[in-house]
Amino acid sequence: MHKKKIIKTMGDISETLTPSFARAAMEMNVPKYEMPESEMLPETAYYLVHDELMLDGNARLNLATFVGTWMEPEADRLMAETLAKNLADKDEYPQTAEIEGRCVNMIARLWNSPDDEEAVGTSTIGSSEAAMLGGMALLKRWRQRREAEGKAAGRPNMVMGINVQVCWEKFCVYWDVEPRFVPMEEGRYHLGAEEAAGLCDENTIAVLAIMGSTFDGSYEPVQEIGAALDRLQEEKGLDIPIHVDGASGGFIAPFLQPELEWDFRVPRVQSINASGHKYGLVYPGVGWIIWRTKEALPEELVFKVNYLGGQMPTFSLNFSRPGSQVVAQYYNFLRLGKEGYRRIHQASQNVALYLSGKLAQYEQLELMTDGSDIPVFAFRMTEAAKKSTNYTVFDMSERLRDRGWQVPAYTFPKNCDHVAALRIVVKEGFNRDLADMLLSDFQRHMEWFKAHPEHKPRKSGHSFRH
User: Fold this and answer.
1) Which of 59, 119, 282, 433 is the most exposed place for a label (fewest CB within 10 A)?
2) In this predicted model, what pLDDT tens digit does every residue of 323-352 receive, in sequence order?
3) Could you tell me the residue range of the domain that residue 368 belongs to?
């Protein structure tokens, strides 16, 4: 009896003693669309998942994404320690809630909020949720004004450049708001002030201005838009607010262009959103939205929840989510301070300007932007190069993948859909040495195309949605 027990025990642990890559699970098909019948050792499951993920691209070489791809080990540790904390449960995790409130106030002051008391804002999963909340508040306030005046409130519209991020198109579809897109023109690849004012009417809930267009990294002229809307009010009596989508530039402009007035210093700006997981330097996903005043956020959009142990106000589309990204944001604010953010972003911009300057020296290429707003720039083939070379920006994007570089190639929207460009996003973790290696690969591929005259240029490539 004692013998049988020992044999059984040894049988139970034999899988543990087997070398990791000789275990039975390693020789079987990995379940993909149906749960397996039996369990396996945690280490075995880890390696199965880990090895599949090796096929993903290297995040540090991803020059397409604006999303942060590196944090300090101390931030990684804090995030691991707080993954199980539900940010929605402020009664159970009051200090995490306090940290969220501190971040809201820090960001509000960074954006020159006129409210010296408690700032009005919240964290979100990302800028997309923050944009939805900002749009909802603007829509609600517009309807309240219209109803108070005894006017119809059934045909709201929002004015924006055609270069907007897709989340704003979603907002308009989800909440039945007419999007009024200002098209691009050659030489103007984002929203213009007079063009925006020209599309406004009594049903316009707001003009949307972007600080850091995803197409070319340029800032839209918030102050000029505000001035154009002031003139519109003088002429037609229309009082149109501005929402600023600072998804990328909201954590750049305060540090690199502190004198630029784009935030709450512009009186018409009622709300601003930004991505903490972009140039806020946090892993995805965390976003922020701040309102100018308490009145800018209609009370009807704030709900009181008490089933988690206490009365808690909430104004988000999501509910349960980990507090780890908010904690990481607070860590960055404490760790870096204003000077640290300025130094990191200045280093990124220096690399962007260096890289764009080097690429501009190629006679085949021309810059559309150079990275002097946010550290992002776009460039395209010259008209002469389009006629004399056997490759396009789509070919170059594809060739650069041979060493892991992800540099997106895409066409611009309506009115400028003849423009095909490459875009490079420089952020923390991409240094001068990597920039030189990228330049070397550009040169190598140009030489390859020259040595293969039989190559047929591609007219399109991987789909791109900013």
Assistant:
1) 433
2) 999 999 999 999 999 999 999 999 999 999
3) 346-451
On whether residue 70 sits in a domain, the answer given is no
Give the helix ranges, DSSP H, for 111-183. Answer: 127-148, 166-174
The Cα–Cα gap between 360 and 84 comes to 48
Q: What is the DSSP letter of 58?
A: P
For 196-232, write each residue's pLDDT tens digit: 999 999 999 999 999 999 999 999 999 999 999 999 9
Residue where the block lists tokens 């923050």: 130
DSSP code of residue 419: -
| 311-318: long-range pairs with CB below 8 Å, 24+ | 312/88, 312/90, 312/91, 314/88, 315/122, 315/133, 316/122, 316/124, 316/129, 316/133, 317/124, 317/129, 317/132, 317/133, 318/124, 318/125, 318/129
CB-count burial class (<10 Å; 0-12, 13-18, 19+) for 408: buried
Neighbours of 199 (CB within 10 A): 15
What's the distance, CA 116 to chain centroid? 28
**Residue 1 placed within a domain:** no
What lies within 8 Å, CB to CB, of 141 at 6+ separation is 205, 241, 296, 298
57 DSSP 8-state letter: P
What pLDDT does residue 75 have?
Answer: 94
Residues 232, 200 contacting (CB under 8 angstroms): yes
In the predicted model, is pLDDT for residue 465 greater than 50? no
Neighbours of 78 (CB within 10 A): 17
Lowest mean pLDDT among 319-328, 411-420, 455-464: 455-464
Cross-strand bridge partners of residue 287: 124, 275
**Are 145 and 262 in a shared domain?**
yes
Q: Give the mean model confidence (pLDDT) for residues 174-200.
A: 96
CATH number of the structural domain spanning residue 175:
3.40.640.10
